[in-house]
Amino acid sequence: xxxxxxxxxxxxxxxxxxxxxxxxxxxxxxxxxxxxxxxxxxxxxxxxxxxxxxxxxxxxxxxxxxxxxxxxxxxxxxxxxxxxxxxxxxxxxxxxxxxxxxxxxxxxxxxxxxxxxxxxxxxxxxxxxxxxxxxxxxxxxxxxxxxxxxxxxxxxxxxxxxxxxxxxxxxxxxxxxxxxxxxxxxxxxxxxxxxxxxxxxxxxxxxxxxxxxxxxxxxxxxxxxxxxxxxxxxxxxxxxxxxxxxxxxxxxxxxxxxxxxxxxxxxxxxxxxxxxxxxxxxxxxxxxxxxxxxxxxxxxxxxxxxxxxxxxxxxxxxxxxxxxxxxxxxxxxxxxxxxxxxxxxxxxxxxxxxxxxxxxxxxxxxxxxxxxxxxxxxxxxxxxxxxxxxxxxxxxxxxxxxxxxxxxxxxxxxxxxxxxxxxxxxxxxxxxxxxxxx
Length: 438
Known about the structure:
This protein is an alpha/beta fold.
C-alpha cells in the first residue's frame, strides 16, 4: 500500500499526484506484516426481548463546566474514547488540562510533547486547585499502558497521539499504521478498564481533520476546537457522539487563567450599549440548536469603476450576490452603480440562510441612510422569486428574542400558533421589507 504524507489517503499503487489532496510526490510505501489466523469464538445471539431484564448502567462523569455539559448532553461516559482536534495553538492541551478543575476525578496526563516542568507551569497558570493530578512523560505506547495498568485512574489524556509510537508495529510515529494500531490499543484499554480516554490530534494545513477515516470510526466521540486566532473566543463542536446527538456547541472565552464558560453568548456578538447606526441590523442565527444573536453590517458607496464591487467578510459572497440581485429586481433599491460591502460582527462565520433578511435590511439602511432600531430582529430566507421561505426553529428564535430587550421581530408570514409578548411582524415578500424600512 501507498499512503499520502499530507492527507493520509491510501492508494494501491504509486502515483505522482495524490487523488484526494492533489499534492505531488507525496506518496510513500507502507508495508504491513501478515497476521496469522486466530481461533474464532462462538458467541450467543440474543434478541431484544431476551435482554429486556438486563440493566445496563453507564457510569457518568458530571463536569462543572456548563458548556461541556451542554455539548455532551450533561455528562461524560466512562470507558469512552474521545478524539479532540484543532489548529496548533488553539489551546487543546489547556482545555484537557482544565478538565481536572471541571471533573475532579483521578486523572493521568500523558504527554509526549511537553515535559513535566512545562505542564507544571501551565497547571499553576490555570489555577489547578488540586496537586494530585498525575503526569506521565512518555511516548512509547507499551510503556504507557503498562504504567496505566499499575496506576488505575478514571481519565487518561493522550497529548498527542501524533508523537506516540509502538515497538510492535511497523512504520514511524505519525504514520498511518502506527496511528491505527495505537488507537486500537487505547480503545481496547478504555473498554476493558472502564477508563475514559481523551486523544489529542491535529488538523492539516487546509483545515481538515488529519487522521485516517477508520480512526474516526474507532472512537466514540469526535470534538473539533475552532475559532479565529485573532479572537479570544473558542467553539467546541461535536462532529460525532455515539451516546447523544451532535446538535450542540460549547463556547469558551480565552483569559489569562485559561478557558472559561461564556455565560451569555449573545452579548459577545452585539454591542447593546451602542446607539442606533446606519447599515446595521440584528438577527438570530442557529448554531445547531443554539440560538445566538448576531449583528450584520453593510456599506454601500457609489462605484468609481464600470463594474460595482461586492465584498463580504464571514459570510459567503454568493449569498451577497443573491441578495443584491433580488433587491435590484423586485424593489426600488437600485444597486447597479453601488459597491456593496457586508460583514458579520466579531467574525462569526455564518452559512445558514436565516440571516438573509438581516443582511437585506442592513443594505437598504445603508443605501437610503436610514437608521434601523436596535430593538428589532430580522429573520428569514430570501427566495429567488422574491417570496419569503419558512426557516427552521422559527418559534425558538422568537422565544430567544422575547427573553431579551427586543420589542419587534420581523419574520416570514407563517401560521404561528403560539402567542408571544414581543411584537411579531409577518411579511410576505422582500417588497414588504422595504415598506417597513423606507
